[in-house]
Design a protein that fits this description.
alpha+beta; 6-stranded antiparallel β-barrel; 5 helices; disordered N terminus
């Protein structure tokens, strides 16, 4: 018996054709029937969606990640807009975040403040100094190094140098020494003491009692105080009663103010200068150290302090600072630097 062969997939014509679209037969199909549904395009559209989604997520992550990096960079001062003033640098420049704080001043200026040990026939004294050049020029008080046979200087890092006297000015109680073989030192910035006002906040850094790098703070209490100190280094007027002498006398540098003598006899040969008065705590060993404004600039060289005598203090030893300290204005130092460097005042 012979069979009727039909094309593969064809259906009997005695049945209604399958609907396509809105109930009309698909004209392009053999026998009026539609071809297999176009799955491939549908598959392509479905494949594109996750790719597009992943791309969008990647772009969003890039934007967020970039914004986070920018924010972190700004917080760390590493952004393209960061300048040198935003980070700590050498010398006495204060970082922007610490500007106007005692901590910021101390961090910036302490590397430029040194401890000075002076040995003489009368004993050993300890004072402080301020580094003003990278090759080791240091300013201090004349009474710290006067009569010294050997001078040892210790930096804030602990490194020790031998120093030579370059020049002294006993009339202004100033001296300039220089380290042997030093280079690349951090230096202090000398400010303008004519701009100082009563009530300005200040920081003092020095080595009281040999405690290197001690920081105290206070205000400028008065201007243009006439302070009189011993001029030479002999007898009762000099080193035996020097403020920073260890042993002998009352351990304080004698000075005179308002016709009265403090911390011992100033002797016959004296000198008087205009001083800044401060209530920042000063103690033996602070002499020659720095009085600093809140911009990190040196405005004075600490030189004298009042301490009650043992009898006045009611104890067997001299009392510490009572908030009466004096500093040589930095403009006096700046006007005297050429003389000190030439050694003309020695």
């Amino acid at each position: 018996m012979t069979e009727n062969l039909r094309p593969s997939g064809a259906h009997s014509t005695d049945q209604d054709p399958a609907p396509y679209g809105h109930g009309t037969a698909y004209d392009g199909a053999v026998g009026g029937y539609p071809p297999p549904p176009p799955y491939a395009p549908t598959d392509r559209r479905r494949a594109k969606r996750p790719v597009a989604l992943l791309a969008a997520v990647a772009i969003a992550a890039g934007v967020i990640g970039g914004g986070t990096a920018t924010l972190v960079g700004q917080l760390n001062g590493e952004g393209s807009g960061a300048t040198g003033s935003g980070g700590a640098v050498n010398g006495t420049t204060i970082s922007q975040s610490s500007k106007g704080t005692v901590a910021g001043v101390a961090e910036a200026v302490s590397p430029a403040i040194v401890e000075i040990g002076a040995n003489s026939s009368a004993g050993k004294s300890t004072g402080s100094g301020v580094v003003i050049t990278e090759d080791g020029e240091i300013v201090t008080n004349n009474h710290v190094i006067s009569g010294a046979q050997q001078i040892q200087v210790t930096l804030s890092t602990g490194r020790t140098y031998t120093a030579d006297v370059v020049g002294t000015d006993p009339d202004k109680d100033l001296a300039l020494i220089k380290l042997q073989g030093a280079s690349g030192l951090k230096t202090a910035t000398l400010g303008d003491s004519s701009q100082v006002k009563v009530g300005d906040q200040v920081v003092a850094i020095g080595s009281p009692e040999g405690l290197t790098g001690t920081v105290t703070s206070g205000i400028v209490s008065a201007l243009d105080r006439d302070v009189t100190v011993a001029r030479d280094d002999s007898g009762s007027s000099g080193r035996s009663q020097g403020q920073d002498r260890q042993g002998g006398g009352n351990g304080q540098w004698p000075f005179e103010f308002g016709g009265r003598q403090f911390n011992g006899d100033t002797g016959e040969e004296t000198t008087t200068y205009k001083a800044l008065q401060t209530d920042a705590s000063l103690n033996p060993g602070n002499s020659g150290g720095a009085l600093i404004n809140m911009n990190g600039e040196i405005i004075g060289i600490n030189s004298a302090m009042y301490a009650p005598s043992s009898s006045a203090a009611g104890s067997g030893s001299a009392a510490g600072s009572v908030g009466l300290g004096f500093a040589i204005p930095v403009n006096t130092l700046k006007a005297d630097l050429d003389t000190l460097r030439a050694g003309d005042g020695s």
